[in-house]
Design a protein that fits this description.
By secondary structure, the protein is mainly alpha-helical. It is built from twelve helices and no strands. The longest helix has about 50 residues. The protein starts with a helix and ends with a helix. The relative contact order is 0.13. The N terminus is likely disordered.
Length: about 290
């Protein structure tokens, strides 16, 4: 009998303790939920605005639910010009991002595994590019592209995007490659593999998380870039998506429903790519930071 009483006493002592321990956890998840709602609210407002008619938006305002779903807004936004801007941005991203990551990987491989004289100074030279404000380079770049007759050209803009993206990409790739055991490279060289073979068959496959994270990060940066495109692109047919969105706003009015639909079209590719490769994105950046 005394044992039963003791068991009840111990249980009554444990339950309040467990309840007190659960309170911080519940508060933590409630706080996370509130932050998630604050973060996701602009996305919902954007989608609801894209699904409203112009009169619905004028009468109901920003936060009201759409009275009738207007799927036609996406088709109108696409026909107004988003199709051309989307194609330009897609072409620039699909060509520039893989080329930039490949060049950065080769440069990082040379700086990490080849015994180059002054490699540390060369790496510092690349890193300095991260701290140069882009605004300081606009005048020299304008003179350079004008002399090369590359103003208002996607080809000219490609080289600017490539140059500005390399410092960060080299820093990430070099940091990740430093975590690869040098013994693997030396063993491959002893077996007769060339330096290019070591890069292609050993180092690059082992750097897949860093490569994928860079493809996502650089892809997002290239897809959303505005300043250089605004300065160096003039014709409407050469504009990219960030510039094209400005066309939905005039001096006297803004087609908010079409602008929201165009923005939804703009962000869909980025969201899809990130959802498919988010695991590599986190692993790649964390591995680079640790190294």
């Amino acid at each position: 009998m005394s044992l039963v009483v003791a068991g009840r006493d111990s249980g009554s002592a444990v339950l309040p303790h467990a309840g007190r321990a659960a309170i911080p956890r519940i508060a933590f998840y409630v706080g996370l939920s509130l932050f998630a709602l604050v973060w996701i609210a602009p996305v919902f407002i954007l989608v609801f605005t894209a699904l409203k008619s112009a009169s619905d938006f004028a009468h109901g305002g920003t936060f009201a639910l759409p009275e009738r779903i207007e799927w036609a807004n996406f088709a109108k936004a696409w026909d107004v010009g988003i199709r051309t801007y989307f194609a330009n941005s897609a072409l620039m991203t699909l060509v520039k991002v893989p080329a930039g990551v490949l060049i950065a990987a080769m440069a990082a491989f040379a700086l990490t595994f080849l015994r180059l004289p002054g490699s540390r100074a060369l790496f510092t030279f690349f890193i300095v590019g991260l701290v140069v404000p882009i605004q300081m380079t606009l005048v020299p770049l304008t003179l350079l592209l004008r002399n090369l007759d590359l103003i208002d050209s996607l080809f000219g803009l490609f080289w600017l995007y490539l140059g500005f993206g390399l410092p960060f990409a080299i820093m990430v790739m070099r940091g990740y490659m430093r975590s690869i055991p040098r013994e693997l490279v030396e063993a491959a060289l002893i077996d007769g593999c060339s330096w290019f073979g070591v890069f292609r068959r050993i180092v690059l496959p082992l750097s897949t998380p860093a490569v994928v994270s860079l493809l996502i990060f650089d892809g997002i940066a290239t897809w959303n870039e505005f300043i250089l495109a605004q300065i160096f692109l003039r014709q409407n047919s050469n504009r990219t998506l960030p510039l094209g969105l400005v066309n939905f706003q005039t001096e006297f009015s803004t087609a908010y429903e079409l602008l929201a639909a165009a923005q939804c079209i703009t962000i869909v590719p980025l969201v899809v790519v990130y959802l498919f490769f988010q695991r590599y994105f986190v692993d790649g950046l964390s591995g680079s930071i640790k190294s």
